[in-house]
Amino acid sequence: xxxxxxxxxxxxxxxxxxxxxxxxxxxxxxxxxxxxxxxxxxxxxxxxxxxxxxxxxxxxxxxxxxxxxxxxxxxxxxxxxxxxxxxxxxxxxxxxxxxxxxxxxxxxxxxxxxxxxxxxxxxxxxxxxxxxxxxxxxxxxxxxxxxxxxxxxxxxxxxxxxxxxxxxxxxxxxxxxxxxxxxxxxxxxxxxxxxxxxxxxxxxxxxxxxxxxxxxxxxxxxxxxxxxxxxxxxxxxxxxxxxxxxxxxxxxxxxxxxxxxxxxxxxxxxxxxxxxxxxxxxxxxxxxxxxxxxxxxxxxxxxxxxxxxxxxxxxxxxxxxxxxxxxxxxxxxxxxxxxxxxxxxxxx
Length: 348
Ligand SMILES: Nc1ncnc2c1ncn2[C@@H]1O[C@H](COP(=O)(O)OP(=O)(O)OP(=O)(O)O)[C@@H](O)[C@H]1O
Ligand SMILES: [Mg+2]
Prior knowledge:
Blueprint: H1 2-9, E1 12-17, E2 21-26, E3 30-36, E4 39-43, E5 50-55, H2 57-60, E6 70-73, E7 76-77, E8 80-81, H3 84-99, E9 110-115, H4 121-133, E10 138-143, H5 144-151, E11 162-167, E12 172-178, E13 181-188, H6 192-207, E14 209-210, H7 213-223, E15 234-241, E16 247-253, H8 254-278, H9 281-290, E17 292-295, H10 304-312, E18 316-318, H11 325-335
Parallel strand pairs: 1-9, 9-10, 11-17, 17-18
Antiparallel strand pairs: 1-2, 2-3, 4-5, 4-6, 7-8, 11-12, 12-13, 14-15, 15-16
Helix pairs in contact: 3-4, 5-11, 6-7, 6-8
The structure holds adenosine-5'-triphosphate and magnesium ion.
Family: Belongs to the FtsA/MreB family.
Pfam families: MreB_Mbl
GO molecular function, one term: ATP binding
């Protein structure tokens, strides 16, 4: 009886704790929070510790524009926790924010949270512990590729295999799913963040201009492309000259950015090819019909689907709302928490 009551009053939420964005799904409500995984910290008055100034969207607007005592950090790196305390605080803040929307959330929530396939036991434990420390009553983990496949609407329960490639900020996850489980999963730490880094290195080396993280990401979104068919002209950018330290503006072209991105994109292609090679033959054969579905924010890079189609000879499509797939998939796993489906990593 008590358990039943507890279930009634408490809320279940699913969290896509991403390197770039954190999304929260609440049972019966869908996605109720979508914010950058960023925290602004300031040295507190004693000068000893750091106190949290802002989290999420509010912290992102401060990126690259903060005075000396304030820094904006991303506590997740490569899909795993880089700073435990700040991650815990960030999760706590987001839980608090969503509970404010639900009066009945007086009992600590059950949380389903996703982890990259390539994360170690220690890294998984850290995510679980951070969620528990942030106030969760129970935490279940789900592999990100599995969540992406469910959220993209792939027939994960079917004996016919399907492949999902989730390109986030920190990791690219490749998963082959059949009969409700991951038959093959791999994750490489090359994704959206690496593309931004490659773009800033290119701009510095070719044009002698220093740009911030936000500008590099903007270049990728505006004129970035993975295939010549999707060339998107040119763009004026501003930064600081490495030669005289003065502000300067230059024009960069879509084709030079594509050239700069080539090697990093090639690593993603290799990860997909490796998955096809290592998948059992019968399942690999299924992919001729089912093709590959791309999810994650990285899937929005222009021409990425064409690049994958050309390099794998398979049909490649970008999922609807790729940025939301993992959160939706975590949420659907949460909705099925009581039936014994095999989506979750119960022993991890
Ligand atoms: N239009 C776009 N073109 C290219 N890249 C984009 C676009 N929109 C978003 N991105 C990139 O998508 C990435 C964020 O995607 P997503 O939210 O799926 O990552 P994440 O889940 O936080 O990261 P991870 O799963 O690796 O922990 C960022 O690198 C962002 O720059
Ligand atoms: Mg993700």
